[in-house]
Every structure is written in C-alpha cells, then in structure tokens.
TrEMBL record:
Organism: Favolaschia claudopus
Protein name: Aldo/keto reductase
Family annotation (Pfam families): Aldo_ket_red
Keyword Oxidoreductase: yes
GO molecular function, a single term: oxidoreductase activity
Keywords: Oxidoreductase
Residue span(s) of domain NADP-dependent oxidoreductase: 19-318
Amino acid sequence: MVNTTHLGGTASDVIIGRISHGLMTMHQRATGPQPDEVCFAAIKAGVDRLPPGAKMFLNSGDFYSNTWGPENIEMLGRFYAKYPEYADRTFLSVKGARTPTMQHDSSMESLRKSMERIESALLPYKKMDLFQPARIDRSMTIEDIMGNLVTLLKEGHFSHIGLSECTAETLRKANAVYPITAAEIEVSLTAYEAETKKVIETARELGISVLGYAPVGRSLLAGKITKLTDLPENDYRRNLERFREDNLEYNLSISSLIPKIAAQKGVTPAQVAIAWVATLGQHVIPLPGSSVPERTLKNCEAGDIELSADETKELNAMAEAGEVKGSRMLGGKEESFLWG
C-alpha cells in the first residue's frame, strides 16, 4: 500500500503522497542541468505510483539553477505543456522573494517580480498551488510579510501560503494573520535541533504541515560518501561545514547506525533516514530531492517503510544526541539565513 497524508492549513482537504519531491537538484548541480526528458521522467515516476485522488507535492523555486535563474520553474512549464494531465495530479509549491544578488526581500515589489517570473514560466498550463518566501526577510515584520502574501493570494496568484526556515514563534505569528499550509525546515537525523522540535510541535498544534527538507543530510546519511574526494570538485557541499575534511570523518562515524538498520531491513541507508523523518508525525512530510526516476521511486518507497519500535528508539537517540560537527550551512554570515 502507498501511504498518503493530508496537507495542513487551507489545503487540509488535499491528499498527497507521504513523501514529497524536491526539484532543486535538477538544475542546481555540479554536473550541469539535467535534460528535460530526464526531469520529466523523474517527476512522472513519483506521481504515477500514487493512488487515485492523491497528488505529488512538488517543491520548486524561481532561483533553482547554478546561475540562480528560473531554469527549474521554466522546465516545469514545459513539463505541464507536454503533460497537461499531470497538472491536477501535482501540488506545486514554489519559493521566491530573492533578489538577483540572493538577498531575501519580501517587499511587494520583490514579490511581484517573483510572481512575474513564475507565471511567465507556468501559465497557462499550471497555476502554482502554494508560494513561499525562500527565507524570512528580517527587515520586515512577519505581519507585514503576511499582509503582502495575502494580497497576492486574493489577487489569484496562488491558493495557499507557506513559509521556509521559520522559527516556531514566527510560524505562530504568521498563522494568526492567515492560515499557513506548510512550513519548510531542515529535518534529519543530523538536523534535529531544539528549534526543529519547537516548529514540529507548533505546527502540529496549529494544523500545519512541516516539509522536512534535506532528510538525508544532503547525502551525508546515504552511505555513498566516505571522503571529501567522493564529491565533484565544484560540488557546493564541499563548502558546507559538515562536509569539511576535519568534520566529515567524524560525522560519518556517528551515523554508522543507519546502514546497519538498512542492511537488516533490506533497504538503503537513505530510505531509513527518510523513513525516520516520517515517524515524527503524520503532519511531517519528508522532502528529499531527486533528479532521476530511479531516485524518485526509492525516495517514495521510504514512505512505506515501517521502522520497529526498537529501531525508532535507536535512531531517536542518535538524533537527540546532536553530536554532528559543523553548522547546517557554510557557517558565519550564512547562518543568518536560518531560523527567521
């Protein structure tokens, strides 16, 4: 049986697959963008395995490319033009509100530019279902940000509102202005911070979905990276603190439980990592990325894996220990992008 769940907020009547599909790696990748046909097949693979009435939650951005351009969302426009029957079988969330220099700007001027980029790529084939500012613009109050988003929603640009990298307090304040459908935060066995738990609990209380991005720790937990040289020379992860040579060996050592459980169950370490995120609540929806159909299917199958009580207890202990070395991003100024 393929497991499903309901979205939250104003989309509580929408049934989606238990595992969602992040599209960033289709165009933001060391080896260059994937060809359209590969991207199309990767999307269709997840949608086609769902039961009737369920939608695949797709997560895109109007800056998903190696040049921070709209290549990913433009690919989606071509996908829906070629396969119009998939428009109603997918729930499309798009992140935006970033300037050309990658600053976070939720002013109405910036948001309208995002609407123009997104709609010029998608319409008339697909209207985005949900819009998210990619990060919380700290130059504005969340109430003012929400006011701008509600104005655009009422104008018909999208149907639901989401947030990304928000604190529990910000989520609560935003939801008081207008019901939030989903909050996207990093959730994994190596990203289970005090604020992560607060957001998950606040979302449960308020009836909001949590989209857990990077559930495999950007492949740190997939069992395929054993040393820094396993990553291509221009791979962005080489700049992340957790993948730096002085941290990587240690971080891999504390994750050794994952491949052990995977071997016992006959699944992959990545699937165990994704399945654990799904144990955190029916409202917590793992958001792994995939740029090929085989990976999409493996990710989706993780939503049907049942972890035993003992396995869950062991994995919980690993997550709670929080022994990972290095920050989630680059460190320094980059950390200001988190927990807005």
